[in-house]
Every structure is written in structure tokens, then in C-alpha cells.
Specification:
3 domains, 6-stranded antiparallel beta sheet, 3-stranded antiparallel beta sheet
């Protein structure tokens, strides 16, 4: 192994003895400032200055660590819309993986990282936001999106728009944000962080992992664009925070009841404010006086009751709101766990409130999350029923458990 050093930054590069870095034609190497005269760093108190290691006590006051002349090529913030097994396709993508390819690990793995479309009208610079076959969003790590929090916020704007159009995609936090780049020559994405998605892209999965690639779920590029534009149009008309709606849904779906109720109740309060502002205030005040509640009209429960008397809210909507408000008060004051059914019911009537507030029927999201039961009553559609189905009244035997005590 032979070592070389960048005389500008002090960074050391290592190559096999038979490799000549000057002949590699690698754009990531600082060929102009690379030397085989390597100077080792004495200890952590030394810093690179004027092509040598200098003790920190001898550095000038305005010293800053040198930056390489080699740029970061097409760096990107990355997040994935879907788990492994769902892909975005157009007519140029051929990813029908058969069982023999699964068993032999001989599938066209590179195709998963192929850039397949860009989102329209999303930013005002000349660097479009890109999407790959395996559903990664690539946001340029440029001056406009220079930090993690800005990147996450922008990613969640896209995800929120898709959610509103009925594509049930959660928001991300720092755990869902990755870094990567567009590969040299363009057309494909590269990830820096090891992950299941990355192993699929590189053909590095185990058999048990890649079985999910058999019968891939596919969404057409044109369909995804249409859903995105529809959700964006919804979002433009709304004046409540979409993040609370999305987070509330997924917390409910995942049985995190406290967070679900808190998120959805914020949506209720924001929608109530909008609905209240659309009504003739003199009539609302008169109703409150008749109810002898004009002195406490600022309370949201009173507003809901007044809106019910004014025939804005049905009796069903009022009851569900009252139940949810009562459970949220219990949560705040007594830390009592809210009932699952009450929060599920709350989700179903949010669509009524949105229609009243904005005269918009969210048919796509409604049809994916709400259905009618045998009694013609609206119920929350729950996809992940495994945990619910396992909490049955079957007898339990814990003899083996006790042996470990």
C-alpha cells in the first residue's frame, strides 16, 4: 500500500502498490496538489497550514482549516417514498423479476437507482428535484437547501402533497434523511449510507431480503405526477398545518394513541377557527346567548355546540368532537390513555370539517382511509391489523417464561 498527500488540505490517500493515482483520471482526486512526500500528523494539537502540520499555538488568529479544490459533485439530500418493493416506472423501465432471478441474485439491480422523473414547478432554480425508480426523492444539496432541517421540511412538503392526494406516505425526520449524489455522467443516483434500499441497488441482499422484489408494486410516472399536482392544489387552498394531519393519521395507524389524538386535535382547532370565521358572527353570538354560554364563547367546545345549533355541524359530528375533546382533557390533566375508537371516529369526521371549511371533498384520501360498515357507519380503514388480531381472548400459558426468573 502506498500513501499520497494533498498539499493543500493534508488529507492522505492510500492506493495499492501497483496503482498510479496520476493515471486514474479520477475527478475526486486532487491530482494537481497530490504528492508522495507524506507528512504524518504529530497529534491532535496540530493543524495543516502552508503545506505542513503546525501546532495550534503557532497558528494565526484568523486561521481556518483549508478546503479542497475538489468540489462535491452533484450532492443530494435523499429520502425514500416507499419501502423496498414499490417502484416508479415508465415505458423505459423493465423490472419484472422472476423467481429464478431472486434465487440467483441476478436481477437488473442498477435499474433501481435510475433517475426516472423530476417534479414540476417545485423550486425556482435550475436544479430540479429528482425521483428514482426505487422511489427516492433527490433534493440538490445546494445553497437553497443547505441544511438538514431545510431539506427535511422540503421533503415533507412533497410527501404532504402526495398524502393529500391519497398516496399514504408518512413524513420523515432526521432518521429518514440520507445523503448521496448523482453519479458521474448523470442518469443514476448513488447513496452514501448503507441501507436495505442501497443493498437492493448494489445486488447485496440476502435471499430472505430480496424475496420482496418478486411481484413488485408499480406506480406510473404520469400517475405520480398527477397525484402530486392534485395534492399540491389541495394544499394551496388549505390554511391548516398538513403535517399534523399526516402525523395524526400514521400515529393512529400505528396505535400511538396519545400522539394521534394530540396531532388530530390541533387540526380540529385550526379547522374550527376557519369554519367559525365563515359564519355570521351576530347569529353565532345570539345562539350562544340563548344557550347561556355567551360568556364562555371562546371555548372550543362551546363553539362546536353553537355550530351544531346553527346546523353547520351534524349531531354525529358534535358527539365525536365532544368525545375527543373530553378524552384530550383527560389526557392533559390525568394522563389517561385515550380510546382507540374515539380517535378513529375523529379521523372520519375531519373530512366533514374540511368540506365545511373549504368546500373541498378530498375523495382520494377519504376513499383510502374511511369506509362504511354493515350499519352504514363511517369507520377508519386499518391496514396493519396484525397486532389488533393477535390481542384475542385465547388462553395464555407462561410456564416457559417463568423458567427464566
Amino acid at each position: 500500500m502506498k500513501h499520497y498527500q494533498d498539499t493543500k488540505t493534508g488529507q492522505i490517500y492510500a492506493f495499492e502498490d501497483n496503482i498510479n493515482p496520476y493515471k486514474l483520471n479520477n475527478r475526486n482526486l486532487p491530482i494537481k496538489t497530490l504528492t508522495d512526500n507524506v507528512k504524518e500528523k504529530p497529534n491532535e494539537n496540530y493543524f495543516w497550514y502552508k503545506e505542513d502540520w503546525v501546532h495550534k499555538s503557532e497558528l494565526p488568529e484568523d486561521y481556518s482549516e483549508p478546503i479542497s479544490d475538489i468540489p462535491s459533485f452533484s450532492p443530494a439530500w435523499v429520502s425514500f417514498l416507499f419501502p423496498v418493493g414499490t417502484i416508479i416506472v415508465d415505458d423505459s423501465i423493465n423490472l419484472d423479476i422472476d423467481i429464478n432471478q431472486i434465487n440467483s441474485n441476478k436481477y437488473n439491480w442498477k435499474e433501481f437507482s435510475k433517475i426516472v422523473l423530476s417534479l414540476p414547478d417545485i423550486n425556482d432554480n435550475d436544479l430540479p428535484i429528482l425521483l428514482t425508480v426505487d422511489g427516492s426523492i433527490m433534493l440538490p444539496n445546494c445553497e437553497k437547501y443547505y441544511s438538514q432541517e431545510i431539506a427535511i421540511n422540503e421533503m415533507n412538503k412533497i410527501r404532504g402533497s402526495l398524502f393529500l392526494s391519497g398516496l399514504l406516505i408518512p413524513l420523515i425526520d432526521i432518521e429518514g434523511l440520507e445523503q448521496g449524489s448523482v453519479v458521474e455522467g448523470g442518469g443514476y443516483s448513488f447513496l452514501y449510507k448503507p441501507s436495505f434500499h442501497n443493498r437492493v441497488r448494489l445486488g447485496g441482499t440476502s435471499l430472505s431480503e430480496r424475496i420482496v422484489l418478486y411481484h413488485l408494486n408499480k406506480i406510473k410516472t404520469a400517475e405520480l405526477i398527477n397525484l402530486y399536482l392534485l395534492g399540491k392544489e389541495y394544499k394551496k387552498n388549505f390554511h391548516f398545518d398538513i403535517d399534523f394531519l399526516v402525523n395524526g393519521y400514521f400515529e393512529l395507524l400505528n396505535y400511538n394513541l396519545v400522539s394521534a389524538l394530540n396531532n388530530l386535535w390541533i387540526v380540529v382547532e385550526q379547522l374550527t377557527k376557519k369554519i367559525w370565521g365563515k359564519q355570521p358572527i351576530d347569529i353565532l353570538k345570539k345562539i350562544a346567548e340563548e344557550l347561556k354560554k355567551d360568556k364562555i364563547l371562546g371555548r372550543i367546545g362551546v363553539k362546536h355546540e353553537v355550530l351544531n345549533v346553527h346546523k353547520v355541524f351534524s349531531d354525529e359530528v358534535l358527539k365525536i368532537l365532544d368525545d375527543a375533546r373530553s378524552k384530550r382533557n383527560d389526557l392533559m390533566h390525568d394522563s389517561s390513555l385515550p380510546d382507540l375508537l374515539i380517535i378513529e371516529n375523529l379521523w372520519t369526521i375531519l373530512f366533514d370539517m374540511i368540506e365545511i371549511a373549504y368546500d373541498i371533498k378530498m375523495k382520494e384520501l377519504y376513499s383510502r382511509t374511511v369506509s362504511l360498515n354493515e350499519e352504514n357507519k363511517k369507520v377508519f380503514i386499518r391496514f396493519n391489523t396484525f397486532y389488533k388480531n393477535t390481542t384475542t381472548n385465547r388462553k395464555r400459558n407462561f410456564n416457559d417464561w417463568k423458567l427464566n426468573i
